[in-house]
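Reproducibility note. Readers wishing to regenerate the assembly model reported in the main text can use the exact inputs given here. Chain order matters: entities are listed in the order in which they were concatenated for prediction.
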Amino acid sequence: MKRLLSGISGRLLVGFGTLVVLPVLLLTHYMLAAYERSLTETVVTSMSTLANHNARKIDSYLHERLTDTLLLSQSVLVRSAIEDGSRDTLTAVAREGVELGATEPDATEPDTSTLDPSKLEGFLETFMEQTGYYDVLLIDAAGTVVFSIKQESDLYTNLLSGPYRGTQLASGFRHARDFLTINLTNFDPYPPSGDDIAAFLVAPVVAEGRFLGSVAVQLALSLLDPIITDRTGLGGSGEIVMARLDGGVGRYMVPLRRAPDAVYQRRIPFAEMPPPMQQALSGNAGQGVTYDYVGQEVVAAWRYIPTLRWGMVVKMDAAEALAPVTQLRQLTFALLAAILVVTALTGIAFGRSLVLPMHRLKAVTDAIKAGDYQQRADPAGPREIRQFAQAFNAMAERLNNARAALEARVEERTQELREANARLQVEIEERRHAEARLHHLAHHDPLTNLPNRHSLQDRLTQAIAMSAREGRQLAVLFIDMDRFKAINDTYGHQVGDQLLIQVAERLRENLRASDLAARLGGDEFIAVATQINQPQEGVPVATKLQAALSEPFVINDLTLSSTPSIGLSIYPDDGATAEELIKKADAEMYRVKRGRRRNQDNDGDTPVRR
Amino acid sequence: MVGVLHTGEERKTEPIPIGVIYSLTGNMAVSEAPLIQAVTLAVEEINSAGGLLGRPVELMTVDGRSDPQHTAAEAERLIVDGQIAALFACWTSACRQAVKPVVERHHHLLFYALQYEGLEQSPHIIYGGHAPNQQIIPGTRWALERWGHRVYLIGSDYIFPRTAHFIIRDLVRAEAAEVVGERYVPLGHDRMEAVIEDLERLRPDFIINTVNGISNLYLLDALHAAGFSDLPLLSFSVSESDLTAMEAVHHPRHYAVWGYFQSLDTPLNREFVERFQRRFGADRPISSPMESAYTNVHLWAQAVAAAGSAQPARVNHSLMLQSRRAPSGIVTIDPATRHQWRTFYIGQAQEDGQFEIVAAMEQPIRPAPFPSYRSVATWQRIAQEIAYELQQGSTP
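Running the prediction on these inputs yields the following structure tokens for the assembly.
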């Protein structure tokens, strides 16, 4: 839901729902409720009218019967029949001693009668046929039934003391006698009529202020059928229900559609009767939507029928009565559903028309983010989004251009940097060469390219250290070229220099790679022979060098000869340091030189080790 | 549109006026005044339940001054000037007969709350009291069965007692009993010496009393003073209101016949009594005419609601077969007679001014304003004769 609401589509859907569906729903609800209310009111009113109509129909019908009976009670024929009948019965009882009720009317001879029985019978039979009564009975003042058309077992019995004293007829008779008023008894099973349910209209017969007896009209329950079964205006589910109350217990007096066997026999406590019937039996009139005896919702009107002391409920199933509401509701809901679908689809379509260009825009953005700067948005969809896409494209274009320009500049700069680097490298190289030359110049004699005195000092010290480590010995040879001063002065110092260069070459050629050669200055050279194990081993080196340097030097067209004087010192015998060893060798060379001068005649003294 | 709505609104809340005329002064005031309270209670109940057709009911109360002619004039004034929807008026038959031509002339509607002699049926009156067959006949029968056959009749000298006595004579004759004496005293009369003389001379088995109004108090006092307190007395117009107005109830064998007694022990009646006494005072007795007046207002209201209109003509039609569970029992308006189906009770006067119910007819009785043992035409002739006799009697 949250996810749905976070998107445009969802929001649009909810928005459309709120804008369209909610007002429509509210309006529909209001209209339906108003319609239902108005229809219910109409149906209830018509039910009420029907109830009034039926109540009046029953009342006027019974009133007519009442009037019939009253007329009967006031007719001279009936009056005299009761008087005569009463006399006849008494006569019959007295004369024949027969039991009351066992005597047939024909069996008696009315000796003092002024009435033709057939005339009365004819009159009453016609009366009965016209009105649909079950029976007409005449009762004398003492309560004896003296006449009956049907001639059932009640004839000639006494209603105050006889077997039928507990019947409704007997109670009706007592009421008529006591109150001189016509009355309608309850409908109850009447034993003489085979326990068929019957009521009696009993009217007093009075002549000259004297109570002569009563006329009773027997009504079968079925007499009310035409009224009760008249379901005019009650539709398919309507019915008229009648019930009465016997001391807190209700009885249905008409067959019920939904409980056909409930008529009369079933006794239902008042509290269990349906609400409209309870109201009716309580004497209250009313109408409304309520429940019937099987709990069905009904539109009903209830009335109390005073003549019968019955409650009447005229009702119709609410489902049928209010069917138009149900139909309208279904139709409305269908329409509502259609509106809902259309709204939802429109909402979704709108949402998509907004969201799709945005999705495309986002895809382009993602592509650009991933590095594809050539991607451009498709300017489609609503104007705002189109403008947005165009603006976006313009922005992407500018960004792309800016990026290309930047790259070109970076490339340019990098090139410049690379060139500067190369130049720097060359400079560094040159400097290093210069430094090396300087270093070489500092440590070598420029003329012979042999290490100079300063360099010799270091190298010799190193060589001493190495020999000391290795337990070896080392020979230092001090060489001085005789007559050099003379040559130099004679042939120029250029020749002298050439000579010195050749001396250096000869020293290099005759020394091992591990050995050293250096120029101390002037015509003084030092050779160091390393890796000697005996002090004597220095002598061959000196001899070899003496020989090599004693060879004539060819310089330009000159062949010059110069003899070297060589002094020899041995490490560690002649000293532990370079100075000591050089000094010793120097001293030795001088001794050789001096010896040679003394022995000038002696050819070539070989320097000897002392 | 605004104007239409405005008038609609006005019409909706405009009160429905009803006219009430009972005597607040004169010899009938003691009996009639409480009926105004009964009507007031019913109207207040209707209004507190939302009124009628959304409109409140408004009482227009007028003093009848115990004068039928004055009452009739006031009734006409209320109908014409007051535009009342219904009229609730009259205690005596003399009053009813004076107002009857007024309501008939205006096709209006009068609710009469008293038990009366019958023999009348106006299409513009609802007879909300008891017809003779609902009070006089069963009451007399009951007395004849218990107290013997020698009856003394005493009544006020006007139409009700005269007609009632005629019917009582029918019953007495039917039982082979005997009216040993009969006397009428003028309404409001306070001299009972002649009655006492009659009783001392005739020594009846019991008295049937149809005296109305304040004279009942003088009669009861005179009976007590003359030592007739043990003589059975059956009254048709003595109610709780009259007993309460007396200093003391001295007549232990005094019985009254009514369609209602305050002591009626049903939940509905207990509630009614409680409501009435909460509104008007715990010491206020409720009589049968009060119950009738109260029930009549409610029946009228039901009919107005059913008709959807307060127009007298429409309500008159809608009133037929209206029924209601009233404090006295189920009350229904009988369309054939315009009287009401009603129960009846016989009560014995108690020292506290109440009646203890000693006999009752459980089922409501069909009203028979013209008792059925004579034809309506015969009764009408008899009524005319009685009226003629009264006229003759009143002229010296």
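We highlight two features of this model. Chain A touches chain B through 33 residues (CB under 8 Å). Residues 56 and 557 of chain A are 179 Å apart (CA to CA).
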